[in-house]
Amino acid sequence: MSSIKEVARLAGVSVGTVSNVLNRPEMVAPQTRLRVQAAIATLGYVRNGSARQLRAGRSRTIGVVALDLANPFFIDVLRGVETAAQPLDVNVMVFNSNKDAAREAGLLETFEEQRPLGVLITPVNDSDEEERLSRLVSRGIPVVRFDSSAPHSHGCAVAVDDVLGGRLAGRHLRERGHRRIAFAGGPFTVRQVRERHHGLAGVLGPADALTVIPLPDLTVATGRTAGAEIAGLPSAERPTALFCANDLVAIGALQEMTQRGLRVPADVAILGYDDIDFAAAAAVPLSSIRQPREQLGHTAALMLLEEANRPAGHEHRQVVFQPDLVERASTAAP
Ligand code: RIB
């Protein structure tokens, strides 16, 4: 890789003149500017962005650690991060912890060296990473948690009220006449799963029957296992409605139950969570509890950049959005 010194030598100018041609070309005489540009082309010089950023003292980049990039929920959140960062000429570096605490720890250590403007993260476990995130903050790298409330944190956080989401699900299924309801989700160490289940359980009556189908993960594959379990029950014991902790589980359950001859919603209604685009596109369009995904990402990014640009004037806050119910064919009344 050619250096700026080699360009200056070939063009017969100082390094400062080359730097001006790159950053303030209007300040350089046309003939000189052309000579420098010819030397850049001849040597194939490419300026080192990270070196430029380091000289300026700070990167123009924010780091984002998503929990599971295989889940379209996080892609939609990232779209919101981009709509906030792009107009401010801030780059977004995206990483996937893939729900692995060790991978998350490695990423946080990398951020200590890379020194981004700030970090957006959905923690793998709301409690374990507190010390590592606090270390980033102590080094002047602000952190905003998204899709995480983490009330004990000293930083900002943006989340959606998952207990309310569970309540909306329970109320909708009861209004449709369902009294034997199943909840499929897990692991229950994940705050979102616990709170969605808690919201559902809180609106069921004493005569209602709630069956929990614990899952090791929230994926289409685990959704299929939930669908198989329900399809294997005698019709007299089978729940008439299934609330899934997210849409990927609901899509898997829908696939498996229809393949095993059950009709949705006639035999079993299905309700998902997130309202990702695939919910509406499913073979039986899925009702879902919609999370404001892009708004979540947009708000978290703006909070982070506000703190990074004006740390002294910044006040930490926790923003909690409300989900809403989107009704489709998978829970339609008979
Ligand atoms: O990450 C698992 C789930 O939690 C996602 O589907 C989304 O609902 C998030 O809140």
TrEMBL record:
| Limits of the HTH lacI-type domain | 2-56
Query: By its UniProt entry, which CDD domains does this protein fall under?
Result: HTH_LacI (cd01392)
- Residues in a coiled coil are none
Keywords of the record, alphabetical order, are:
DNA-binding, Transcription, Transcription regulation
Do the record's keywords include Translocase? no
Taxonomically, the superkingdom here is: Bacteria
A GO MF annotation of the entry reads:
DNA-binding transcription factor activity
InterPro entries per the UniProt record, alphabetical: HTH_LacI (IPR000843), LacI/GalR-like_sensor (IPR046335), Lambda_DNA-bd_dom_sf (IPR010982), Peripla_BP_I (IPR028082)
Q: Which SUPFAM superfamilies match?
A: lambda repressor-like DNA-binding domains, Periplasmic binding protein-like I
**Which PANTHER family does the entry link to?**
HTH-TYPE TRANSCRIPTIONAL REGULATOR GALS, LACI-RELATED TRANSCRIPTIONAL REPRESSOR
Q: What is this protein called?
A: LacI family transcriptional regulator
State the species of origin.
Nonomuraea deserti
